[in-house]
Design brief:
Largest sheet: none
Distance between the termini: 27 Å
Structural class: mainly alpha
Shape: globular
Helix content: over 70%
Strand content: under 5%
Order of helices and strands: HHHHHHHHHHHHH
Oligomer: single chain
Number of strands: 0
């Protein structure tokens, strides 16, 4: 475990040495804050209109449905774009800089290298998502949202981001060009994001398969507050598969 945490510490320091971390964090928070402000403004407008024309409207308008759920969906789209920027350098930069050979010839096992880099990216993602906790805190202080539904939504957002990190780690391990790694990761994550869209017209056999492969369908259930074991198994399987493929990719270069 000491080797893994050594890699984690080195990777996290390298994130904050480069300007990429600050650009990603700033962009994520700015976009998240903009979406939150607009969704809350729209909710207040709807609340005032319903109050004027319909009695008991405040019970029909729910903060989770009108603010938190759309915010979670918007943040998930931002993550599709930003996560490849976080993971593109994990292996590709070392290959380009000539330090990859030193890493592979060190006494570290392949699993330790992959897991260390994965955990470092995971910690960075946790920092990103954790900084947005100010939005639900404001709603709790000044409103009356369903806290457990919000918590389930954040669990879903973190699981989706972690799966994207694992996929991005794999795309970075197969190339030495960071741009190619970022674009490949973006395409793979977009595919996982939209693969369920044609499910309704895909038939009784292919349709359910596409829905199950889609991260958005599982994420949507969590945003509603439904913590389904199928969603947890799906995300765990996706993360495990991506890390397994990354290990095989690194291992193939180690013995080449």
């Amino acid at each position: 475990m000491r080797n893994i945490w050594t890699i984690v510490g080195k990777e996290i320091r390298s994130y904050f040495v480069s300007p990429v971390a600050y650009v990603v964090l700033t962009g994520f928070l700015l976009l998240g804050g903009w979406f939150f402000f607009n969704l809350l403004s729209r909710f207040n407008l709807l609340l005032s209109l319903y109050t004027q024309f319909q009695a008991g409207a405040t019970e029909q308008l729910n903060l989770n449905d009108f603010v938190i759920a759309p915010l979670m969906n918007n943040l998930s789209i931002i993550l599709v774009i930003l996560v490849p920027m976080i993971t593109m350098r994990t292996f590709a930069e070392e290959k380009k800089g000539g330090t990859y050979e030193l890493l592979l010839t060190s006494p570290l096992r392949t699993g330790e290298i992959v897991l260390g880099k994965f955990l470092a990216s995971f910690v960075f993602i946790c920092i990103m998502i954790g900084l947005t906790a100010i939005y639900p805190i404001l709603l709790i202080v000044f409103g009356n949202p369903e806290v457990w539904v919000m918590l389930a939504g954040y669990i879903g957002l973190l699981l989706m981001a972690t799966a994207f990190v694992a996929v991005g780690l794999f795309t970075s391990s197969v190339t030495e060009n960071q741009i190619i790694a970022a674009v490949s990761g973006l395409v793979a994550m977009l595919l996982l994001y939209i693969i369920g869209w044609p499910a309704q017209g895909a038939g009784d056999v292919l349709g359910p398969i596409l829905k199950y492969l889609s991260v958005t369908d599982h994420f949507a259930e969590l945003v509603k507050g439904v913590i389904d074991t199928r969603a947890l198994v799906y995300f765990a399987s996706l993360i495990g598969l991506a890390l397994f493929l990354t290990m095989r990719s690194v291992e193939s270069l180690r013995w080449r």
